[in-house]
Write a structure and sequence with these properties.
The protein is of the alpha/beta class. It folds into two domains: 13-294 and 412-421, Aldolase class I (TIM Barrel, Alpha-Beta Barrel); 296-405, no CATH class. The protein is built from 17 helices and ten strands.
Length: 423
C-alpha cells in the first residue's frame, strides 16, 4: 500500500543538480555525501526542464529512475527531490507522476497587466504596503505610495495568479504536502527591490501558494556555466536584503517557515559564493543553489581525459557545435556571451591532446588555457551529444570512473564547499 507523504519539507541547504543524460546521479550524490561527512546536510534536487527533455528525447520518469537507483545504491538516507524545472500550465502534465518539486515558471506573464478589479482588491487588502515600509534587517525604511504598489501589482499579479493556477492543478493531482513548490521570478529585466519582493510575497500568500523557495532576479549577469559578471558588493547587498525581506514576509504573511532564496543559474558563479555563504550565515537562512549544465561539461572533460574514443567524441561534439553555433546559441542568447574570435577552429581542436581539451573546458580561472567562449558554446551544445545517441552514452559508460571523478569533484570542490561550508 502506498502511504501518503504529508508536508514534504525542503531542508535548509539544497543543491539543484542537472543530469541531462541520466548517467551521473551516483557521482552527484557522492558530492552531497562528502558534505554530510563534513558535517553539513546538503540535499540534492535533480532538475531537468521540459525543453531539455524535448531536445534529448527523454522522459521525466528517467530522471526519477536514475535518482532513485543512485539513492538506493549509495545508501543515502536523507531527503532528495526531483524537480519539474521551469514548468507552466502547458508542460506540467508530463511531470506529475515523477516529480516532487515543481519550479513554477511564470516569466511569460511578468509585465502582463492583471484585471483592474484584481489590482484594486490587492491594494485594498494590503494598506500596510503603502506609505513607510520598515523591514527589520534593512537600515532604511522604504517609502511607497499607492501608484507604486499599483505599478508592482500590474507587473507581477497576473504572473502570481498564473502560479496559483499551476499550484491548484498540482494540489488536485498530487495532494497537499506531497510536493515542494518554487516560484521563479529571475527571468525579468531588472532585479526586484526588497519592497517589490515583499509585495510579490504578499501576492503569493494571497494565492495560498506555500512556496518553499523563490528565485528572484539579482543584479549582474548569470551566464551559463561561467563566473558571475557584475558588482559583487551590490550582489551581496541585494542578497542580504532579500533574506531580510523573506524573514519578514514569513512572519507577516504566514508563508512557510523554511522559505528560502533560490539562486538560479548558480553553477560556477564563484565570485559570489562567499557573499551567499556569509549572507545565509548572518541571517541563519537556507539557500537553494541551482546548477545544471555544468554537469554535462564535466562529462565532456572526463571523456577528453580518457583519450581514445572518449576524446574523439569530445572533439566531434565541438566540431559539430561550432558548425551549428547560431542554432545552438539562439535559445540562450540572453544568458551567454561568446566571443567568436576566441573560439578555436575545429581543425585546431582536432589536433589537441585530451589534456589540452580538458584545460580549455574546465572552469579553472587560474589556468591560462581556460577558454570561457569554448566552454559556453559546449554548454549549450548538449543537443549534439543527444544526436549521437547510444554512441555518447556508451562512451560515458566505458569511461565512467574518469567522468564520475570530475562530476563529483566539480560539485564538491567548486560548489558545495564554498557555498555551504565557506571553504
Amino acid at each position: 500500500m502506498h502511504v501518503a507523504v504529508e508536508n514534504l519539507t525542503l531542508p535548509k541547504f539544497s543543491i539543484g543538480v542537472g543530469d541531462r543524460f541520466a548517467h551521473q546521479a551516483k557521482a552527484q550524490l557522492a558530492a552531497c555525501m562528502k558534505a554530510a561527512d563534513a558535517g553539513v546536510e546538503v540535499v540534492p534536487v535533480w532538475n531537468k526542464s521540459n525543453r531539455e527533455h524535448t531536445i534529448i528525447g527523454s522522459e521525466p520518469v528517467e530522471t526519477r529512475a536514475a535518482a532513485d537507483a543512485a539513492v538506493k545504491e549509495m545508501g543515502w538516507t536523507k531527503p532528495y527531490f526531483v524537480d519539474a524545472d521551469h514548468i507552466n500550465l502547458k508542460t506540467v502534465q508530463r511531470f506529475l507522476d515523477s516529480s516532487n518539486f515543481f519550479t513554477l515558471d511564470v516569466a511569460d506573464l511578468i509585465g502582463q497587466p492583471a484585471k483592474p478589479e484584481d489590482v484594486a482588491a490587492f491594494l485594498g487588502a494590503h494598506p500596510e504596503l503603502v506609505g513607510t515600509v520598515t523591514i527589520p534587517g534593512i537600515a532604511e525604511p522604504f517609502k511607497t505610495d499607492k501608484a507604486f504598489v499599483e505599478g508592482v501589482a500590474n507587473k507581477f499579479l497576473a504572473a502570481v495568479q498564473n502560479a496559483g493556477e499551476i499550484y491548484g492543478l498540482l494540489l488536485e493531482n498530487k495532494g497537499a504536502g506531497r510536493f515542494v513548490p518554487e516560484i521563479s521570478m529571475d527571468e525579468t529585466d531588472f532585479p526586484q527591490t526588497p519592497v517589490e519582493l515583499l509585495i510579490i510575497l504578499a501576492m503569493i500568500a494571497d494565492e495560498k501558494i506555500p512556496i518553499q523557495t523563490i528565485a528572484p532576479k539579482f543584479t549582474g549577469r548569470f551566464n551559463k556555466g561561467v563566473d558571475y559578471v557584475g558588482d559583487v558588493k551590490q550582489f551581496a547587498k541585494e542578497f542580504e536584503e532579500d533574506l531580510a525581506t523573506i524573514a519578514f514576509a514569513i512572519k507577516r504573511y504566514g508563508l512557510p517557515e523554511n522559505l528560502k532564496l533560490s539562486v538560479h543559474s548558480g553553477s560556477d558563479k564563484f565570485s559570489i559564493y562567499k557573499a551567499i555563504h556569509d549572507g545565509a550565515k548572518k541571517f541563519n537562512a537556507g539557500v537553494h543553489l541551482k546548477t545544471a549544465g555544468t554537469n554535462w561539461l564535466e562529462e565532456l572533460i572526463g571523456l577528453a581525459e580518457s583519450d581514445g574514443t572518449g576524446l574523439a567524441i569530445a572533439k566531434e561534439i565541438y566540431s559539430e557545435a561550432l558548425a551549428h553555433k547560431d542554432e545552438l546559441t539562439a535559445p540562450y542568447a540572453t544568458v551567454i556571451d561568446i566571443d567568436d574570435s576566441k573560439l578555436p577552429s575545429a581543425a585546431e581542436v582536432n589536433g589537441w591532446t585530451g589534456k589540452q581539451y580538458a584545460a580549455a573546458l574546465r572552469h579553472d580561472q587560474s589556468n591560462p588555457a581556460y577558454n570561457p567562449s569554448f566552454r559556453q558554446l559546449l554548454h549549450v551544445g548538449f543537443k549534439i551529444a543527444a544526436k549521437l545517441g547510444p554512441r555518447y552514452l556508451q562512451a560515458l559508460e566505458a569511461n565512467e570512473d574518469v567522468v564520475a571523478k570530475n562530476v563529483t569533484a566539480n560539485l564538491w570542490e567548486r560548489h558545495i564547499k564554498p557555498v555551504f561550508l565557506g571553504l
